[in-house]
Amino acid sequence: MTTKTIIRPAGTPPPVGPYSHAVRVGDLLFCSGQIPLDPATGQLVEGDARAQTERVLENIKAILAHENLGLDRVVKTTVFLTDLADFAFMNEVYGRYFPRDFPARSTIQVAGLPRGAKVEIEVIAHY
């Protein structure tokens, strides 16, 4: 039977609700959606979708690093934007973090995100 392991990396912003940063099942790591929280303060990073996407992806990198994984191990992402007009800005930053062998991706416009964030990204990675 495959076990479920809860991942709680130090040095990452605390969850803003009753969920885990990530859960490992078998050789997959399911990372909860990350919003642009500063790990030092726990506060939302101000700025445009570029700045917020950068912070989100840095937070995701920290979760993956806790498990000795890099972004190259990400197989699927889901991007949530409060305004699809920000797609090009998010995509510009996203492309720097995923320059080749792109993971599968969905991008969805939503009515709102926690703490007024402009972007949230969740990932699935493979060990």
Question: What is the CA-based Rg, rounded?
Answer: 14 Å
Number of strands: 6
Largest sheet: 6 strands, mixed
What is the tally of helical segments? 2
End-to-end separation: 18 Å
CATH homologous superfamily placement: RutC-like
Beta fraction: 25-35%
Give the ordered list of helices and strands: EEEHEHEE
List the uncertain runs.
none
CATH class identity: Alpha Beta
Q: Give the overall pLDDT as a whole number.
A: 96
Total discrete domains: 1
Q: Would you give an account of this structure?
A:
The protein has 127 residues and is an alpha+beta fold. It has a single domain, classed as RutC-like (60s Ribosomal Protein L30, Chain: A). 23% of the residues lie in helices and 29% in strands. The protein has helices at residues 49-66, 87-97; strands at 4-7, 22-25, 28-34, 74-81, 104-109, 119-126. The chain has a 6-stranded mixed sheet, covered by helices on one side. The radius of gyration is 14 Å and the shape is globular. It starts with a strand and ends with a strand. The model has no long low-confidence stretch (mean pLDDT 96).
